[in-house]
C-alpha cells in the first residue's frame, strides 16, 4: 500500500468534485426540494450518502491497491512460449521480454512508462487514481465507475426533480437559476461520461479484454485481414465465462445463481491462470 499515491493533484481534484457534488445534492437540492427534516428528504439523503460512501471507498481501494507487478525472477513456461510465438508472431499480447525492465514478462503484462515497471493484465494508467489499472485493482476500478455513475445519475435526478417542482420558476432569482442550470449541465456531463466509461468496461469484460488489448487487437485484425486471415482474441471464452474470470464467480451468484453451476467446468481452462 502506497499512501503517497494520494498526494497528487488529480486525486485531490476527484475528492473535491465528489465533495462538491455531495454538498450541493444534499444541502442545496434535496434540502430545497424536500427539506432534510422530511421523511422523503432524509431518505434520499441517506441513499445518496450510501452511494457516495461506496464510491469514495472503492476510489481509495483503487488508489492504494498495487495493480500487480511481475514477480522478480519470473521465467516463462518454455512450451507455452513456443506455442504462443508460433501462433501469434505478430501479436504484442505474447511479447515476452521487456527491454526497459530487462526481464521476462507474462502474457497480458505491459510496461507502464509512468509507473516504470511491467504491470500484470494492464488495462491503462489512470491519472485520476494516480495508479495503473491492472490485475489486482481492475475489479475495484469497475466497481468505482459503477458507483460513480449511480451517484452522479442520482444527483442529476435530484436536480431535475427540484427544478421541475419549482416549475422552472425561480421567481426572479436569476443567480439561483444560473446555479441550477450550471450544476445540472455539469452533472449531466459527468453522468454521460461515467456511463460511457462503464459501458466501455462492460463491453471489455464481456470479451475478457483490456483497453490495450482492444487497440492491439484492432491492429492485429487489420494485419490479418490484409493477409486473408481471421483474428480472434485468445482470451475470449464466451461472455459468461469472461465475466466470471474477470470479476470472480460471486458477481454472477448475486444476479444469476444458476449461472455459476452452468459454467463451473469452464473455470479450470488455461486462461484462468492469468486471473487467479
Ligand atoms: Zn517493463
Ligand atoms: Zn502505471
Automatic annotation (TrEMBL):
It is an enzyme of class 2 (transferase). Residues 95-216 form the Palmitoyltransferase DHHC domain. The keyword Acyltransferase applies. InterPro entries: Palmitoyltrfase_DHHC (IPR001594), PFA4/ZDH16/20/ERF2-like (IPR039859). It is a multi-pass membrane protein. GO terms for molecular function: protein-cysteine S-palmitoyltransferase activity. The keyword DNA damage does not apply. It is found in: Endomembrane system. PROSITE patterns: DHHC (PS50216). It catalyses: L-cysteinyl-[protein] + hexadecanoyl-CoA = S-hexadecanoyl-L-cysteinyl-[protein] + CoA. Keywords: Acyltransferase, Membrane, Transferase, Transmembrane, Transmembrane helix. The chain crosses the membrane at residues 7-30, 45-64, 141-159, 179-200. It holds the Pfam family DHHC. Its EC number is 2.3.1.225. One of its GO terms (cellular component) is endomembrane system. Belongs to the DHHC palmitoyltransferase family. The DHHC domain is required for palmitoyltransferase activity. This is S-acyltransferase. It comes from Cinchona calisaya.
Amino acid at each position: 500500500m502506497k499512501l503517497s499515491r494520494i498526494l497528487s493533484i488529480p486525486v485531490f481534484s476527484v475528492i473535491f468534485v465528489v465533495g462538491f457534488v455531495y454538498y450541493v445534492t444534499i444541502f442545496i437540492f434535496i434540502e430545497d426540494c424536500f427539506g432534510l427534516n422530511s421523511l422523503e428528504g432524509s431518505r434520499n439523503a441517506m441513499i445518496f450518502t450510501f452511494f457516495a460512501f461506496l464510491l469514495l471507498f472503492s476510489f481509495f481501494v483503487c488508489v492504494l491497491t498495487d495493480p500487480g507487478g511481475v514477480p522478480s525472477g519470473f521465467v516463462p513456461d518454455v512450451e507455452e512460449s513456443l506455442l504462443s510465438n508460433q501462433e501469434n508472431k505478430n501479436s504484442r499480447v505474447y511479447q515476452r521480454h521487456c527491454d526497459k525492465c530487462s526481464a521476462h514478462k507474462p502474457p497480458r503484462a505491459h510496461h507502464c512508462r509512468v509507473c516504470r515497471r511491467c504491470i500484470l493484465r494492464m488495462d491503462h494508467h489512470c491519472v485520476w487514481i494516480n495508479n495503473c489499472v491492472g490485475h489486482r485493482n481492475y475489479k475495484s476500478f469497475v466497481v468505482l465507475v459503477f458507483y460513480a455513475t449511480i451517484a452522479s445519475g442520482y444527483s442529476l435526478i435530484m436536480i431535475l426533480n427540484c427544478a421541475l417542482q419549482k416549475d422552472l420558476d425561480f421567481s426572479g432569482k436569476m443567480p439561483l437559476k444560473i446555479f441550477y442550470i450550471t450544476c445540472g449541465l455539469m452533472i449531466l456531463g459527468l453522468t454521460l461520461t461515467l456511463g460511457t466509461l462503464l459501458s466501455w468496461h462492460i463491453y471489455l469484460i464481456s470479451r475478457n479484454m483490456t483497453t490495450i488489448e482492444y487497440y492491439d487487437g484492432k491492429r492485429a485484425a487489420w494485419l490479418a485481414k490484409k493477409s486473408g486471415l481471421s483474428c480472434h482474441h485468445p482470451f475470449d471464452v464466451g461472455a459468461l465465462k469472461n465475466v466470471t474470470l474477470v470479476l470472480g464467480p460471486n458477481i454472477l451468484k448475486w444476479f444469476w445463481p444458476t449461472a455459476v453451476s452452468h459454467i463451473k467446468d469452464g473455470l479450470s481452462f488455461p486462461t484462468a491462470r492469468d486471473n487467479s
